[in-house]
């Protein structure tokens, strides 16, 4: 079991982050936020796949003006992502975002940051201080180079300022596209403060490489008990980020849900396990199961019956057919073309 580091608790809308709250999954829309309808559509898709919190880019006032329509309909809390312009941050807080993400280093003078802090204080919403290796302050870069120490120093500098303003409703992220750097930075900051941490590997890549890099970066930290909310960054649809994020949490037993056990197939496989497993996975995902259930899709009699028997439901393939198991017992034989339907039917009986 993972022993999670206890952090202070904050709330983004209804979603608690830190303390004893479960690790939440975030994503970010990639629509033009000014198009409220399209943005909402994407938010709804993400929410339907289990996303807990969504972030939207707010690059200009028009985007900020679209917020009320988005906030009215969004089924999950919305975080406004602001760079460079404190007025956009203040306005979006006034419009009702449930949290904002800024990198105080690119907002400008401390007076400007203070205005954002004051607005967040009045609205009683948290601020994510998002430090990024790509936009470190010049003096920090000169002193530390682009290192984990630099990220930590930058974050702590901002934290000190926020604390001097009596503002503690914060969470932190220290992102880099380098996985080892990200891991080191989060480990260090986790020892130095107890603010909740938002984990992510930035610009991680496409669905393939980004999934691997995020899983190693975020997964290593979560396995060490570090991290309170996660965002997997992929150059893909946000919903794909949500799927990966949830699977990552399930892999570490940090989130309940279905576990699909699939054999890798080999020369003994006599039914199309790969396409059967994909279909089962897709259908199971739509069921939004929130308890631990194992489903085995196995190719043959070598490991098949063993795994399938251990699982809550499962099949072990044979020639053109499969044996269906439930809770360790053989239920019946089923022809190949009926495997998906029958397995799902059996699964429904134990939900
Ligand atoms: S369960 Fe059977 S088909 Fe699947 S990999 Fe193992 S030996 Fe091969």
State the main characteristics.
351 residues; alpha/beta; TIM Barrel; Sulfite Reductase Hemoprotein, domain 1; eight-stranded parallel beta sheet; five-stranded mixed beta sheet; 13 helices; 15 strands; 20% strand; binds iron/sulfur cluster
Strand and helix layout:
Elements (H helix, E strand, L loop, with lengths): L9 E3 L2 E3 L6 E5 L7 H13 L4 E5 L3 H5 L1 H7 L4 E5 L3 H10 L3 E4 L7 H14 L3 E6 L5 H7 L3 H17 L5 E6 L3 H14 L5 E2 L7 H17 L5 E3 L6 H14 L6 E5 L10 H15 L5 E6 L5 H7 L2 E5 L3 E6 L2 E7 L3 H10 L3
Parallel strand pairs: 3-4, 3-10, 4-5, 5-6, 6-7, 7-8, 9-10, 11-12, 12-13
Antiparallel strand pairs: 1-2, 13-14, 14-15
Helix pairs in contact: 1-3, 4-5, 6-7, 7-8, 8-9, 9-10, 11-13
The structure holds iron/sulfur cluster.
Structure at a glance:
By secondary structure, this protein is an alpha/beta fold. The chain has 13 helices and 15 strands.
The chain-level mean pLDDT equals 95
Number of helices: 13
- Mass-distribution shape: elongated
CATH superfamily of the largest domain: Dihydropteroate synthase-like
Helix content: 40-55%
Chemical compounds bound to the protein: iron/sulfur cluster
Total strands: the figure is: 15
Radius of gyration, Cα only, in angstroms? 23 Å
């Amino acid at each position: 079991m993972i022993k999670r580091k206890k952090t202070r608790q904050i709330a983004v809308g209804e979603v608690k982050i830190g303390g004893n709250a479960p690790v939440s999954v975030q994503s970010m829309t990639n629509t033009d936020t000014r198009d409220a309808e399209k943005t909402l559509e994407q938010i709804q898709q993400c929410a339907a796949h289990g996303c807990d919190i969504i972030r939207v880019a707010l690059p200009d006032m028009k985007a900020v003006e679209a917020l009320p329509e988005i906030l009215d309909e969004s089924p999950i809390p919305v975080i406004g992502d602001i760079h460079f312009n404190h007025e956009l941050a203040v306005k979006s807080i006034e419009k009702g975002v449930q949290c904002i993400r800024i990198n105080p280093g690119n907002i400008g003078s401390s007076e400007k940051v203070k205005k954002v802090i004051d607005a967040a204080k009045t609205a009683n919403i948290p601020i994510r201080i998002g430090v990024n290796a790509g936009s470190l302050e010049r003096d920090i870069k000169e002193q530390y180079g682009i290192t984990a120490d630099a990220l930590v120093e930058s974050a702590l500098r901002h934290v000190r300022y926020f604390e001097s303003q009596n503002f503690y409703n914060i969470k932190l992220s220290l992102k880099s596209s380098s996985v080892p750097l990200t891991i080191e930075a989060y480990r260090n900051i986790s020892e130095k403060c107890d603010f909740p941490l938002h984990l992510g590997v930035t610009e991680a890549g496409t669905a393939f490489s980004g999934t691997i890099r995020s899983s190693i970066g975020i997964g290593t930290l979560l396995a060490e008990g570090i991290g309170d909310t996660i965002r997997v960054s992929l150059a893909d649809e946000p919903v794909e980020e949500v799927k990966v994020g949830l699977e990552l949490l399930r892999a570490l037993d940090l989130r309940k849900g279905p576990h699909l056990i699939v054999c890798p197939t080999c020369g003994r496989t006599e039914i199309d396990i790969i396409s059967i497993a994909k279909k089962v996975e897709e259908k199971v995902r739509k069921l939004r199961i929130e308890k631990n259930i194992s489903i085995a899709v196995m190719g043959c009699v070598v490991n098949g019956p063993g795994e399938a028997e251990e699982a809550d439901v499962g099949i072990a393939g044979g020639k053109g057919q499969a044996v269906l198991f439930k809770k360790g017992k053989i239920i019946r034989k089923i022809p190949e073309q009926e495997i998906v339907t029958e397995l799902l039917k059996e699964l429904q009986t134990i939900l």
